[in-house]
Structure formats: C-alpha cells, structure tokens
Amino acid sequence: MTEDNKKEEKAIIRIRDASFVYSSKDSTPVFSSLNLELYQHENAFLFGGSGSGKTSIVKAIMGLLHLSKGSYEAFNRDMRDPSAGTLLAVRKKIGFLPENGILISQTSVLGNLAFPLRFVAQLSKGRSEEIAMAVLEEHNLLDIKDCLPFELSINIIKTVGLLRALIFKPVLLILDDPFEGLDIEGFRFFQKIFAKMRQEKEITLFFLTRKPIFVPGLFQKYYELSPDGDLMSVDSQRIEHHRLEFTMISGEKIL
User: With bands split at pLDDT 50, 70 and 90, how would you rate the model's confidence at 7?
Assistant: First the structure.
C-alpha cells in the first residue's frame, strides 16, 4: 500500500512510542517504545519467536495492558486510559482467536458461539442462539452443537474458536498462532475462511505466529519481533528466508 493510499484508508490501530506495563505494581515495561499501525484492508503478518512479546501486543491492542507512556488509538478512540464504555466499543470491533482456541470449558459449542453475541454484541439469548445455529449449519457442524470443549480435538476447538471470533462480523480479526495444532482438514478450513475474507475485503487480519508460516497473497504488511522485543517492518522475502532456515534446522515441513 502506498502512502497516498494509506491516507485514504483508516488506521484502525495506531500505537506510537508506547510503553506498556502489566499493572501499577510492576514498573517493568513489556515494551519500552512500541510503534505499530494497522490499516483497514491491509492484512498484517507478525513473526516472532516464543517469548518475544506477540501475546503482549495482542493484550495491548485489547486494552489489557496499562499504557505508561506514548499514545494508542483504536478506531479513533483514545486508549491511554479507556473507560469501560470505550473498551466495550473497541472490543465489539475485534475478533480474537488465542493460540489454543480457548473455549469456555463448561459451555457447549452452541453456547460458546452465542457468547460474544449475547455479551459483546448484547443480543437476546434467543437471537444469539439462532445466529449460532445458522453458523454451525453453514459449516456442517450441527452434530457437535451440544459437545463440551473437553470432548473436542484441538483441530475442532480452533475451528469453533475461529467461527466465534468472526460471528459478530468484526472489523479487525487477530489470530495468535492459528495454524498450531491443526491437521490438514483444519488447515483447509482456515484457508477457506481466508479466501472468503480476500474476496469480501470487509475484515482486516492481524496474523501472529512463532513459526515463519508464509501464506502467499494474503498479506500486504510484514513485521518481525526481535528477541529483544523490537518490532521491525520487513518484506515478504525476509519471512521466506526464515521459513527456509527453519525447515533446514528443524526438518519440519511448513508452508
């Protein structure tokens, strides 16, 4: 995306020279000077090893980390000291799939899908379950609607988690190591969702991974986190170099 085109698009996330701490009792910053901009219709890929700070960036975007300096705006709202109303308004625009899928343990698949509709979008229980049933039917998953998470494979947990993240049609979709633990069927399902996103161009994707998984044609922006937590803008060739290096060292075949 050129600079002129960026001016026409909306910066949905803008973090500048920011330092984050987990709580007022802990003065050690997670990042000392974080700069990140996510633009509408510009899918972004972030590669960083374990412990490099990917999850902390997600927490910062979700308003779960305290900003001790710098600035952070999400959807044109100041997030330096957000009110409960501001947090709710921002989170209504963000779908999130954690690394392990993380479903509510004592709630059925149907209940997990209905949860964000009821408590984020604030729809009625009946309407929330009606939408959730339609999503399950669309993806041929009605046979697991009453299953609890412990009865499901990690593959199905992440599939349901992705559908839950998308169910209220977010502006921004954040995926944390989404391919980890997937078999070929799960991978194909994610690819189908990505193909639909590319076609409709309604949702912006922020994809974070600790393995240099490269998905051709999906991303317009690439970032890398150094072991010291520095965030760098890189090109796709650098990610491809990491992918080849990882394959040679580990012997694990990845995309």
Answer: very low
CA–CA separation, 241 and 121 (whole Å): 42
Cα gap 241→64, rounded to integer Å:
33
The mean pLDDT value of the chain amounts to 88
Q: Which residues contact 183 (CB under 8 A, 6 or more apart)?
A: 155
Both tokens assigned to 179? 């391919």
For the stretch 44-73, pLDDT in tens is 999 988 778 888 999 999 998 888 899 999
In 3-state terms, what secondary structure has residue 154?
helix
Q: How far apart are CA 172 and CA 247, in angstroms?
A: 31
Domain borders along the chain are: 3-103+152-250
The per-residue pLDDT for 18 is 92
Secondary structure (DSSP) of 213-228: ---TTT-SEEEEE-TT
The class of domain 3-103+152-250 in CATH terms is: alpha beta
Count CB-CB contacts under 10 A for residue 159: 24
Q: What is the dihedral of CA 122, 123, 129, 134, to 10 degrees?
A: -110
pTM, rounded to two decimals:
0.89
